[in-house]
Amino acid sequence: MTTIIVCDTCDYSMLEKLHEGKTGGEILAEHVERLAADTDVKVKRQSCLMGCERHCNVAIQAEGKLTYVLGKFDPNAHSAEAVVEYAQRHIESETGQVPFKQWPQGVKGHFVARIPSLN
Ligand code: FES
């Protein structure tokens, strides 16, 4: 099962840590959780993925597959849609490597790292 890990402590913007009392990460996590609810994608929150300067950050991982770390997302529904759609393609992929042709537009330019599976 593919899990999206959303950093829930990322800043809202370059100027504001919070927006209406919530971090950008919390806002993004809420959108991702809502959109993933009807899918096979699991969502987990994590405080800090150590990419604070390029907020908001997420990681996409599954047992035995490549893990991807993505950042520089604005905390909104558009970003969340792209992340959830990409995670669905990650589920379909045998290795976790989603063909470029299948990348949602909203994840392009957001990849930070690809981490090999341990097994
Ligand atoms: S606060 Fe989100 S990566 Fe550090």
Chain-wise SSE layout:
Layout: E1 3-7, E2 18-19, E3 22-23, H1 24-36, E4 42-46, E5 58-61, E6 67-70, H2 77-92, E7 111-115
Helix pairs in contact: 1-2
The protein binds FE2/S2 (inorganic) cluster (FES).
Provide structural commentary:
- The protein is of the alpha+beta class and 119 residues long.
- The protein has one domain: Glutaredoxin (3-Layer(aba) Sandwich), CATH 3.40.30.
- 24% of the residues lie in helices and 23% in strands.
- The protein is built from two helices and seven strands.
- The chain has helices at 24-36, 77-92; strands spanning 3-7, 18-19, 22-23, 42-46, 58-61, 67-70, 111-115.
- Helix 1 crosses helix 2.
- The model has no long low-confidence stretch (mean pLDDT 98).
- FE2/S2 (inorganic) cluster is lined by residues 7, 9-10, 25, 48-52, 55, 57.
- Residues 7, 9-10, 25, 48-52, 55, 57 line the site of FE2/S2 (inorganic) cluster.
